[in-house]
């Protein structure tokens, strides 16, 4: 089953790079875009049918009440006129009086929808509206009106108040029967009037009215069901669009969710939340990539570190015991410094991947000072250092601190004003180590000054600081950045490890 | 001038002065003409009024009476000037009414009384076969609708009460047809003219009935005036009726009544009815049934 997006959402789908005609997800058998419109349309149809049924029952009740009211009205009129006609022995007059209401058997089809019978005081039929069923001057045979087992008498109380002297309606098969005693002015009984109304009298009208009710109901359903279907689909279309975009996972996904996030409804909020989730997932992916790069770098450093050690040993042995001319000696010195710098970098990379490898020593800071020298040279920045550490090691993971401090020193070096002085202070507190790096320069971005590390990787600059904060947080440390009076201070505090 | 010569002259239009003029201008009251339900058809009252007003030259009021008794009382008490009544009431009221004109059915002054019953009751051939029926009469003063069958019963030594299971009056001949057609009555007695006209007009009631027996012919219901009416007015009415077929309105009236003409009446045409009336009064011996009903 293919489903089209209704109305304006088709344009939305086009702009989103989706097919304007078909959303594959709508083919799901349990799709809300199918189920909800179907439920809404079904409810509309059920409501219409329920109303039609109620209206039909009410109409039937009203028609029966109309029949009763008409019958009682006719009976009341007959009760006034018939006794005189009976006393005058005016059979024709009585017949005309009866047939003025029921219709006669000459013009009407045989056995019309109502009939009236006057039974005289003798017990014989005085006159009836249907003389063939109830012949004049013969004992009445009630078989045509008698439906054994179906007699039902309405409550007498309901009639007695409104129509005194009349019997309540008696339902006998398809006949509704009314009985009244005919009395002369003197009060003497002169006969009994039986008036029977066939259901056909109101069933035809009922059928007609039900036909109209059904037609109007079907018409209403034909109009409202598609409208409800259309509106529900229209409301749900953005949801389907979002769901489709979520399934695509390409460039359009972010754009579609961004567009939908502008909506001021639940779909908008859902799209916004999805957009945030997308960003976090992207940052996590980048962090993983960086971690992989780090792992690769560490492995590379490990593989390089050992040959470097051997090369340095060989070089220094050569320097110590060998005889070289000046040019060769200078080259060997240059080679020594270069190899030493390479080893420092390799060891720094190794430290990042092995935070628990070893405790910190003052030499670690010496190494770092050595590492940033190229930057100092490039930026024309001097370094002033104060390292107050005891001899031996300090119970702090050397790797993370080295990397974090290196990142900060490099950042400070790059941010420092040319010709200015970098300051590196290392202090051992009671239960923590504090490292501070100061440089003169412009203030770093505001988000970098925040006390807490951002939960996501920053775009553009600031990655070094973010990485430092992450490394320090892994070993319980913190990094704070302040900028006061043109001086930016980075403060690392890392608790001492418990031995 | 002999009476017949006078009338002939009136019909031929040779009467001088007053007869050619309208009603006296001093007479502001309308000419009142009575009809009963017996002969009414749709539009007949209007046709009567249009015709009489045109021919009498003054206002005419058509008064409908529900029985012959009422019509006779209205004539006797000067409430009406003329009326179309049955032959039996005329015989009864000869003392204060006089014949004015005789409708001609098929051009003849005669008609018959029919005994009718349900069309499905094909075995009934005589009034004898109607024993135990509920029987519908027209009017106690109707010849065809009462007098003929009652006198016939006399010949059988019966009365309606002894012969029939029940009887009633409809005070209208076509209602007798309806009563039998509907089954309210098993059988009834009706003016042959009425039954034939209804049948010709495809009346549903008439089509549900059949003729059991036809009487011998009797004088057609006449138009009479009260005897104390000015002879000029009587003559003017008579002249108008006898020449009805000569003008458009007259022909329209005759067409609506399914009549062909109005004839100059003769007393002898009602001798048969007078004889029946005498039988009913007991002043004449019963007449054999075969002399009353001929056949169907």
What does this structure look like?
- The complex is a heterodimer of chains A (499) and B (296).
- Chain A is of the alpha+beta class and 499 residues long.
- Chain A has 13 helices and 13 strands.
- Chain A has a six-stranded antiparallel sheet. In chain A, strands 8-10-11-13-12 form a five-stranded mixed sheet. Chain A has a two-stranded antiparallel ribbon with strand order 7-9.
- In chain A, a hairpin with a 5-residue loop joins strand 5 (175-183) and strand 6.
- In chain A, helix 6 (251-261) crosses helix 7 (266-321).
- Chain B has 296 residues and is of the alpha/beta class.
- Helices cover 37% and strands 21% of the residues of chain B.
- Chain B is built from twelve helices and 14 strands.
- The longest helix of chain B is centred in the first third of the chain and has 13 residues, at 44-56.
- The N and C termini of chain B lie far apart (46 Å).
Concise account of the structure shown:
The complex is a heterodimer of chains A (499) and B (296). By secondary structure, chain A is α+β, with helices and mostly antiparallel strands.
């Amino acid at each position: 089953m293919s489903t089209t997006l209704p109305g304006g959402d088709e344009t939305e789908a086009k702009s989103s790079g989706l097919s304007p005609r078909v959303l594959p997800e709508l083919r799901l058998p349990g799709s809300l875009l199918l189920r909800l419109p179907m439920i809404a349309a079904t409810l509309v149809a059920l409501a219409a049918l329920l109303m039609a049924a109620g209206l039909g029952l009410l109409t039937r009740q009203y028609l029966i009440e109309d029949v009763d009211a008409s019958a009682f009205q006719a009976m009341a009129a007959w009760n006034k006129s018939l006794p005189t006609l009976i006393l005058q022995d005016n059979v024709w007059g009585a017949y005309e009086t009866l047939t003025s209401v029921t219709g006669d058997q000459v013009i009407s089809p045989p056995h019309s929808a109502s009939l009236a019978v006057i039974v005289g005081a003798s017990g014989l039929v005085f006159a009836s509206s249907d003389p063939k069923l109830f012949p004049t001057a013969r004992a009445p045979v009630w078989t045509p009106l008698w439906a054994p087992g179906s007699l039902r008498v309405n409550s007498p109380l309901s009639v007695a108040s409104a129509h005194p002297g009349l019997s309540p309606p008696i339902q006998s098969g398809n006949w509704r029967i009314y009985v009244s005693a005919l009395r002369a002015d003197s009060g003497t009984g002169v006969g009994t009037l039986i008036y029977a109304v066939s259901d056909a009298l109101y069933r035809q009208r009922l059928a007609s009215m039900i036909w109209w009710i059904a037609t109007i109901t079907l018409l209403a359903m034909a109009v409202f069901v598609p409208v409800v279907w259309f509106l529900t689909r229209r409301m749900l279309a953005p949801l389907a669009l979002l769901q489709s975009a979520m399934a695509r996972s390409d460039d359009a996904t972010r754009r579609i969710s961004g567009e939908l996030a502008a909506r001021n409804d639940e779909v908008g909020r859902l799209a916004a939340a999805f957009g945030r989730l997308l960003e976090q997932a992207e940052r996590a992916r980048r962090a993983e990539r960086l971690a992989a790069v780090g792992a690769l770098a560490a492995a590379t450093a490990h593989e390089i570190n050992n040959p470097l050690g051997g090369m340095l040993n060989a070089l220094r042995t050569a320097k110590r015991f060998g005889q070289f001319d000046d040019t060769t000696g200078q080259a060997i010195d240059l080679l020594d410094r270069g190899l030493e710098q390479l080893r420092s970098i390799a060891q720094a990379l190794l430290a990042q991947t092995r935070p628990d490898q070893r405790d910190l020593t003052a030499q670690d800071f010496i190494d770092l000072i050595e590492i940033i020298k190229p930057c100092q040279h490039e930026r024309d920045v001097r370094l002033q250092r104060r390292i107050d550490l005891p001899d031996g090691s300090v119970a702090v993971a050397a790797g993370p601190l080295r990397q974090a401090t290196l990142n900060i020193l490099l950042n400070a070096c790059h941010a420092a004003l040319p010709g200015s002085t970098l300051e590196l202070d290392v202090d051992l507190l009671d239960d923590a180590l504090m490292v501070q790096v100061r440089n003169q320069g412009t203030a770093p971005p505001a988000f970098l000054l925040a006390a807490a590390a951002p939960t996501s990787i920053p775009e553009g600059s600031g990655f070094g600081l973010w990485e430092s904060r992450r490394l320090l947080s892994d070993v319980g440390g913190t990094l704070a950045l302040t900028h006061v009076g043109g001086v930016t201070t980075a403060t690392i505090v890392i608790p001492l490890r418990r031995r | 001038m002999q009476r017949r010569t006078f009338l002939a002259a009136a019909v031929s239009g040779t009467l001088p002065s007053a007869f050619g003029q309208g009603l006296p201008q001093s007479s502001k009251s309308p000419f009142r003409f009575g009809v009963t339900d017996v002969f009414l058809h749709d539009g007949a009252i209007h046709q009567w009024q249009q015709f009489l007003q045109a021919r009498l030259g003054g206002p005419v009021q058509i008064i409908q009476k529900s029985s012959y008794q009422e019509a006779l009382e209205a004539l006797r008490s000067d409430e009406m000037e003329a009326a179309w009544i049955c032959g039996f009431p005329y015989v009864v009221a000869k003392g204060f009414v006089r014949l004015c004109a005789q409708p001609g059915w098929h051009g003849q002054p005669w008609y018959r009384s029919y005994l009718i019953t349900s069309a499905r009751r094909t075995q009934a051939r005589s009034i004898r076969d109607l024993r135990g029926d509920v029987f519908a009469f027209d009017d106690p003063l109707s010849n065809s609708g009462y007098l003929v069958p009652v006198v016939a019963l006399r010949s059988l030594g019966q009365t309606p009460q002894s012969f029939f299971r029940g009887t009633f009056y409809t005070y209208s001949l076509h209602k007798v047809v309806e009563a039998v057609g509907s089954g309210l009555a098993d059988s009834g007695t009706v003016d042959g003219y009425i039954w034939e006209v209804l049948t010709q007009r495809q009346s549903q009631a008439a089509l549900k009935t059949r003729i059991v027996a036809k009487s011998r012919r009797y004088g057609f219901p006449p138009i009479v005036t009260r005897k104390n009416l000015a002879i000029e007015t009587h003559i003017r009415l008579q002249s108008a009726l006898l020449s009805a077929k000569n003008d458009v309105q007259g022909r329209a009236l005759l067409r609506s009544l399914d009549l062909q003409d109005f004839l100059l009446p003769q007393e002898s045409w009602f001798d048969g009815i007078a004889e029946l009336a005498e039988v009913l009064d007991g002043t004449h011996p019963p007449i054999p049934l075969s002399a009353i009903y001929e056949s169907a």
